[in-house]
Structure formats: C-alpha cells, structure tokens
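Chapter review: from sequence to fold.
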Amino acid sequence: MPSPVRLAMAQMLVEGGRKDANLTRACARIAEAAAAGAQIIVLPEALDLGWTHPSALTDAEPVPGGGPFERLRDAAARHGLFVCAGSTELADGKVFNAAVLIGPDGALLLHHRKLNELEIGRAFYARGDRLGVAETPFGRIGVMICADAFAPGQVVGRTLGLMGAELILSPCAWAVPVDHDNAREPYGQLWRDNYGPVARDFGLWIAGVSNVGPITGGPWTGRCCIGNSLLVGPDGEPALTGPYGADAEALLLADLPLGTRA
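The token string follows.
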C-alpha cells in the first residue's frame, strides 16, 4: 500500500483588496505546512484580493506570470510541496475567478477557472472555460472552486471523478450574514450534501478550504467568511472540519491513503 499523503488545509484570513498582506499570509501558511510534513496544501478562493471585492476589476494579474502566481510558485518550489490556491486572473481583457495547482518544482500543473459562479459574482468574473486533472506521484488530482461543487447535477465534481481524480481540491469563500447563529443553524450542510455523493460514488476525497474574515467591499459587504473548511472521504462522510468563525484561522492536517483507485 502507498504511504499516506499529508494534506494541509489553510483556513486563513483574506482581507479585501490587500494583495500583499494576503500573499504574505499565504506564503507563511505554505512554510508552516511544509514544516508540519505536508506534501499538499490547499488555500482559499481569490486569496489575493478577496471574493467579489471591487479591486478584482482593477488589480487582477495574469496566471501564470503575475505577481500573485509568482509568489505562490516561488513558495511551492522553496518548500517543496504541491500548492493549490485561488487567485484573481486577468486574461485577454477579462477577469476570471481562477485556481492553480503548482508542483513542488514550481511547475503549473492545473489552471482552473470557476465555471459555476454565483449570480452576484458575475459582475466581477467571466465564466470559466476549462476542467482537468493532473497526474502526481500520489495519483490524479482535480481542482474546482467553491460553487462549482453544486453546479446542476454536481456535474463539475462528477466530471473530475470520471476523469480519474482521487482527490479534488476546492478553494472556497464561505460567507454568512453577520448575525448568523451557528449553534442554531450549523454551517456546512450545503457542502456535505454536494461533496458526499460525489466522494462516495467515485471513491475519492474532496477538500474544500474557506478563508475567514469580514467582507469589506462588493455585494456581500458586511457578511463574514467563517472557515468551517471540510474534508470528505470516499465513504461520503466528513473526515475533518475546520473551526467556525470570522477569526478562526487554522492549519488543518490529514493523512490520506491515495494511490489506491484503479
């Protein structure tokens, strides 16, 4: 049997429009994950500028080649691990909600653009145009972004499963109204309902990693991102859940038995 793969899920603060601070924080989480023996790390959606922050329309950069990608690439290569992260991409005059998978040598292995953007995000991001998996020493890995998971019929996750993914990595930004009562209405059922059937039907793992912190610009100003990051196993059940809260930064670690799917 292959040795377990250590996955790190970086539930980190993302501040709207504060690109340098966010990337500095992301690179610190990459270093922390490497020190903890992780071979793969997943970071949140649009971690450079924050999801639907107005700065997306003015400050997005190319992927690859832009500053955010280069900093993430350098950190992946410096610490020798696979890095999956969401960022805001400028390409051909359009802005995309993008995510990358970078190898431990700094190579770009996957470049995803969100397909199932929420209606309130469509003023900021163009629709994605690609879906793929990457061959790694641990097996095939796929990438999707947040609401891609509940596209009609769970088509994005199921397509990645059909493409042979053993692990789906999903940068996310999970937000609630500031008065949300998590004791009365525990967050996360939407993700359990959509990750669980795909993971069970295809015998794969899904890791959704959300940021934390207040949303300070855009259509959801005043809401808070609350982490609650989720790892679902091949039995369709949650294997790990991150802490809930606008200040609940955490680095979650899990050892996954990958490399076993036919």
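Two observations follow directly from the output. The mean pLDDT is 97. Helices lie at 19-35, 56-59, 67-79, 155-162, 189-202.
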